[in-house]
UniProtKB/TrEMBL annotation:
Top-rank taxon: Bacteria
Keyword Transcription regulation attached: no
Protein name: Aromatic acid decarboxylase
Family annotation (Gene3D superfamilies): Flavin prenyltransferase-like
Entry keyword set: Flavoprotein, FMN, Prenyltransferase, Transferase
Keyword flag Mitochondrion: no
Residue ranges of domain Flavoprotein in the record: 1-190
Length: 213
């Protein structure tokens, strides 16, 4: 998780991964802590990360607390501080399926595209690319300048999936959480993680107007 606006996207991705039975190595950049505090009022603390994560994951995209249930103890999540460059995921020999950067700031996009490895998030992304593992970068910024577009092309050419946080409306969204879940569903699709977060297109017009299943 980098410092771009869009903490509901990150929370929904984590819930989706855990619901699918995946274990998660979580990296929260320093900038993203400020965004999380600004958007939710939650201070993410290294010494109390499980408590803070549980509070955050229970919150809906509209800011309402206790909207979602959270797996007790979060046993399937392992947290790594962003400054820990000796963390497990910093090595290619650490067994992982891939990496999702959600949301991805333009600074994170630039750092990964240039191979800077200035913090653990960038380092893990670099390792993911060199090991030819799936890397999904959910860019959350608008408008995009030419330099960022060039960095996005570089990531695409390196094998990453560049996935702008751009919600669609054909799925029949009626709530802000629906728009968040559409983007998150596309992220999980790109990572090959099963979910039922949004109504898929089935080739029939008017699907958004029909009652949900």
């Amino acid at each position: 998780m980098s410092g771009a606006s869009g903490t509901p996207y990150a929370a929904a991705v984590l819930r989706g991964l855990l619901a699918a039975g995946e274990s998660v190595d979580l990296v929260v950049s320093r900038a993203s802590r400020l965004t999380l505090l600004d958007e939710t009022g939650i201070a993410f603390r290294d010494a109390h990360w499980r408590e803070d994560l549980a509070t955050w994951l229970a919150r809906g995209a509209d800011g309402k607390p206790d909207t979602f249930g959270v797996p007790e103890g979060l046993e399937d999540v392992r947290y790594w501080p962003a400054g820990d460059l000796a963390a497990g995921p910093s090595s290619g020999s650490y067994a992982v399926k891939g990496m999702l950067i959600v949301p991805a700031s333009t600074a994170a996009v630039a750092g990964v595209a240039l191979g800077l490895s200035k913090d653990l998030l960038q380092r893990v992304a670099s390792v993911t690319l060199k090991e030819r593992r799936p890397l999904v970068v959910a860019v959350r910024e608008t408008p995009l300048n030419g330099q960022t577009l060039k960095h996005m092309v570089t990531l695409d050419e390196a094998g990453a999936v560049v996935l702008p946080a751009s919600p669609a409306f054909y799925a029949g969204a009626t709530h802000i959480q629906d728009l968040v879940d559409f983007v998150v569903g596309r992220v999980l699709d790109a990572a090959g993680v099963p979910h039922a977060l949004y109504r898929r297109w089935e080739g029939e017009l008017g699907g958004a107007l029909r009652p949900g299943d």
